[in-house]
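Entries read sequence, tokenised fold; example below:

***
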Amino acid sequence: MPGGSGLPTGTTRQLTQTPESEYNARWTESGKIVFLKVVDGEAQMFEMAAEGGETRQLTAIPEGINDFELGKDDAVIFGKTVKMDATVNELYEDLPDAEARIIDDLMYRHWNQWDDYSYNHVFVMDYPKDGMVKDGYRDLMKGERVDSPVPPFGGSEQYTYTADGTGIVYAAKKTKDKVEWAKSTNTDLYHVNLADGKTTNLTSGMMGYDMEATYSPDGKYMAWLSMERDGYESDRNRIFIKEVKSGKQYEITQGFPHPASHIAWSADGKSVYFTAPIKGTIQIFKTEISSQVPRKVTQVTTGQHK
């Protein structure tokens, strides 16, 4: 834990005791805890000491934020909903009480939610050392009718800072129209250079879901989850490695029959840990990232974990 808490090892204590919901807790480099708390129906960022106690509100962003992660020097990347499409009432001002919808594509409803005329976008901002952030944050997807994180289940695992803090990588499905969006599972990973805003597709030509990019501690490698086929939501999740400098990429789970998830790097950056289902349980596995084959996947845990 960054900074240390001053609590005896193994001690458990409740840090917050408020009627509101609190979640998405993260550590700052100085050892404070940053989390989301619902205020007047909107989620905002708060910080507190590792021991709990008084909290400080960090954001007062209109409509709130959905999720966030911290990068180098506690730079903040967060997800926020952006309304871009017009309702019937906005299209026809003479029908202020109309409750109708104009439906001309397949995405008027997804899973259990109606289209709310909005899109999930990825934003960045500096960590607020004093006061609260109310504006001035930067939309990395400005003007795009595209979602990141990708609904219905995506969260902050779908975006990350590069290891050196100069860029952002996020997952998105950028299709030509909503009909194709409804049929496709071809998400890609997009890199945004924070200095000039240039966006580059890192997984062009890979046709299934590409998700959850994460960088090795030394920044030399990027790992991510990838499905092979477009339109097949239940395809096996593989783990791919990309050498950042050369661009060379390769799968490190060849021959492993189970779908991988939740990638985590070892401290030395030579291996990755991940979870996978096996015999009705969820277990932790480990494999080296070397491009040399054959490569061994080792099961780390046993027991009734789900």
User: Anything to note?
Assistant: Residues 178-183 form the longest helix (6 residues). The two ends are 26 Å apart (CA to CA). The mean pLDDT is 93. The chain has two domains: 1-58, 77-299.
